[in-house]
Design a protein that fits this description.
The protein is α+β, with helices and mostly antiparallel strands. The chain contains 5 helices and 5 strands; from the N terminus they run βααββββααα. Strands 1-2-3 form a 3-stranded antiparallel beta sheet. The protein has a two-stranded antiparallel ribbon with strand order 4-5. Helix 3 packs across helix 5.
Length: 162
């Protein structure tokens, strides 16, 4: 599985990186995940993750249970709430770009590319170092530290993204 560290939720990492747009991105992810799951999901299971390449995501912790989800092509996919929330992070990062000033849209695009890479790539090519200094994102000290492994549900996440 892709390596990550947990970010203290009191830091509000989306607000740190995106300013006022961070709150709407968080709501987009949470509401979109529940809509896609087709049912309310328990509060308190959300966590912020900082991936090895500096990507940030708001993720549901449940990687075990499976929920049938329909993607944009009408196909049904069995996915964990974790995978559903990760796909919604990608969709929200893409969708929000249309609603914010250019500087914030550029940051959203960078976060989108970094998160997608963290979920599907074997090796990191994009390391975020200056985007969120308060989150201690930095260049890897050596090749192994920057190494990423695809998420075990990477295929489903990409299928749900559309």
């Amino acid at each position: 599985m892709t390596e990550y560290a947990l970010i203290d939720p009191d830091i509000e990492p989306f607000n740190t990186v995106l300013g006022e747009s961070g709150a709407s991105l968080q709501m987009h992810i949470m509401r979109g995940t529940e809509c896609r799951a087709g049912a309310p999901l328990e509060d308190g299971q959300w966590e912020y993750r900082l991936f090895a390449n500096g990507a940030i995501a708001l993720v549901l912790r449940d990687a075990v249970s499976r929920i049938p989800v329909r993607n944009e092509l009408g196909e049904t996919i069995l996915a964990s709430p974790e995978a559903i929330s990760l796909s919604m992070n990608l969709l929200a990062l893409k969708d929000q770009q249309q609603l914010v000033p250019l500087e914030v849209a550029t940051r959203l695009e960078t976060l989108y590319r970094a998160l997608k890479e963290a979920l599907i790539q074997e090796h990191s090519t994009l390391i975020l170092s200056g985007l969120a200094p308060d989150l201690r994102a930095r260049k890897p000290a050596d090749r192994r530290e920057g190494r990423l492994r695809p998420h075990r549900e990477a295929h489903s996440i990409i299928q749900m993204e559309g």
